[in-house]
Amino acid sequence: MKKIKVMLLFGTRPEAIKMAPLVIALKKDPRFQTLVTLTAQHREMLDQVLALFAITADYDLNLMKPGQTLCYLTASILNELKPILETESPDMILVHGDTTTAFASALSAFYEQIPIGHVEAGLRTKNKYSPYPEEMNRTLISQLGDLHFSPTPGNRDNLIREDIPERQIVITGNTVIDALLMTVKDNYQFANPILNAIDYDTHRVILLTSHRRENIGAPMVEIFSAIRELVLANPDVEVVFPMHPNPLIAETALPLLADLDRVHILTPLDYEEMSNLMGRAYLVLTDSGGIQEEAPALGKPVVVLRKETERPEAVAAGTVVMGGVEKADIIRITQHLLDDPLAYQTMAQAVNPYGDGRAALRICQAIAAYFKK
């Protein structure tokens, strides 16, 4: 029986994390021939995830350049992918989410008339500049795609409202839960000695991440000022902040946080360290999209440091709360969770709407059904 040739294309750490369970599942399934192509939109952080999940690329475009622009990256992906797609002629390509890699890869496959499967399809904020450029990347991929793997019924409904045929949409849950459950371990020992030295039993640890383009500048001043006041007001609170390498973030964060003993500013953590830190944390404050899905799977309430979220299911389920980017709001909402055990437990025990860790298997079945295998 001729195998279905599937090529997965990704280039950033978040994509690699969420595609890793799917690479593993496809390679185990005898119905598929599986190829992995990297753009390396990110390089070092991407390689950490590949090593963790023992994934080897068949093609690596290695496109990352210092100060790369969206135009450069998009054009480079289109130019570099064309001969690969012509040579391999896959039956389907799979892209993930909302990155420039995902959009440009989908566009390249469309030009070659290759069917496109979109993992994590249907998330929307309805504001094309927030998150930027991700909202429009994701929306445009939906118009190019042939199979849409939606984490939730709400994501499916978004696609139907945009005239995507319902027969092309499959609700799968999110593969990030698959990856997380493969990674978090009891009694995990961190490679970073700072993380091993924290007393997670007597101190409440807040995991902080903030990296969104739209938050750089005044919103981050508000975010980091709020963190400063929360630490000073709560002697048992420690903050761990794996800081994104963008120098503009350091310029804002260090003057406000670097002098505080109970704020630990770290270089970015690899995925295994980050997942296990999330498992030990008391509370998560983030502007990340993926963490809004991951932390609730571990019973951790999330305060979202954004004005909008493309994950309203989490808000509706009560696993996350919108904190915004105003200092007073962030302090009020976070302090309430620190002060009110019932409010905290209500969020911690809410059912995560993003799945049960079997999303990758559902995607394999949907692709096989598409090709009548």
UniProtKB/TrEMBL annotation:
Pfam families: Epimerase_2 (PF02350). Keywords: Isomerase. One of its GO terms (molecular function) is UDP-N-acetylglucosamine 2-epimerase activity. The keyword Methyltransferase does not apply. Its EC number is 5.1.3.14. SUPFAM superfamilies: UDP-Glycosyltransferase/glycogen phosphorylase (SSF53756). Residues 25-367 form the UDP-N-acetylglucosamine 2-epimerase domain. The keyword Isomerase applies. NCBIfam families: wecB. Belongs to the UDP-N-acetylglucosamine 2-epimerase family. This is UDP-N-acetylglucosamine 2-epimerase (non-hydrolyzing). The gene is wecB.
